[in-house]
Amino acid sequence: MSKAEKIYSFDKSMELFHRAARTIPGGIYGHFSPTITVPGSFPYYTAEAKGCRYLDVDGNEMIDYMCAFGPMVLGYRNKTVDSAAATQQALADCTTHPGVVMIELAERLVELIPTADWAFFGKNGGDMTTYAILAARAHTNRKKIVMVRGHYHGVAPWCTALGFGGIIPEDHYQIIQVDWNDLDEFEKVVAEHRGDIAGFIAQPYHHINFGDQIMPAAGYWKGIEQICRREGIVLILDDVRAGFRLSMKGSGDYFGFEPDLSCYCKAIANGYALSACVGRRELMNAASKVFFTGSFWTSQVPMAAALATLSELERTDAPGRMKETGTLLGDGLKELGRQYGLEVTFSGPPAIPFMRFTEDRDFYWQQIFCSEVTKRGSFFHPHHNWFISTAHEQEDIEETLNHAEAAIKVVKREI
User: Is pTM, for the whole model, over 0.85?
Assistant: First the structure.
């Protein structure tokens, strides 16, 4: 039996999940929950990982196209990053005071990102998006924040959809939502609330779950930037997901606009827990007045890992490599679709792609396909964008396309 024909089972994962459900709310919570894939057709627990692959608790080897939902960008257990982290760990990590490495990392980000004059650190992307809106309010002495419908900025109440447990309408009282790529709607909202809007926050392009990724329309970001400058609105870029995968200078540089504040996490430290907000000099005084902190936010090991990660990303031209590898995967999947009469839509940047079957309106085909690919050894998420890393090589893509061809035959048979 070939590797493409071998079908994995996940009995140990299921057993552990039932055990976990007795002591952990939901068993596995948040975006890691099996309920947002296809329960029973995907692994639930990891045993070990290296490069672009991991072993689950059932002993199944997976080529990972989720990369821990983004943080793994250089490969699991990257020797350069782990060595830098271990060197710092031998000295100090979480202590009563910050370390010099915090200053070094702030200086590195200021050097790297054209719109950065200072940096502030936390742990999660949501830490930084919330900090950014607080800084925008402190800077402008205004209350309202404009965000794009469907954009994910974390799990704080201000940006979490109504319907989730504990979220109430009052949490969204000062939040105004507009459609992506609709410059006219943004202009209208600004006119209706002139002098009251502190900030506009958005992802660099439209990367929602359960839908195609949509790039910014021609002139969109320049138009947003011009309105924000004219009206004194702080322009906040949520670069948590795309940061350092499209450009080492940030996605503002990639798409040709200049944010006032930019939020990073995911790829900044190759899996070590760290996030950052960087901003313009004129916002620094207001940002310093925001009391926002955590006991682990000045931990030194993740900062040492981030310095090593950024150097490796730059040294290896990681954005270029991920674009090339992602293009190889996308072209291969589209060609398979043509061969088997199932048109494939591949949206978003090649380094952060989303794939679906064009005629599949309810994700049923997609769920079958991703389940079958995963059961053969390549982890494809059916509803969330995927991630490419520099650890993915051509032979990994070729192996995955073999898994995908076997899976697409199943889709044809099922539909």
Answer: yes
In tens, the pLDDT along 120-160 reads: 999 999 999 999 999 999 999 999 999 999 999 999 999 99
Q: How far apart are CA 69 and CA 90, in angstroms?
A: 29
- Lookup: tokens for 341: 């009469």
Provide the CB-side half-sphere exposure for 181 (13 A, CA).
Answer: 9
Contact 343, 360 (CB under 8 A): no
pLDDT 10s digits, 304-337 = 999 999 999 999 999 999 999 999 999 999 999 9
| Domains of the chain, start order | 11-69+317-414 (3.90.1150.10), 79-315 (3.40.640.10)
**Nearby residues of 39 by Cβ (< 8 Å), 6 or more positions away:** none
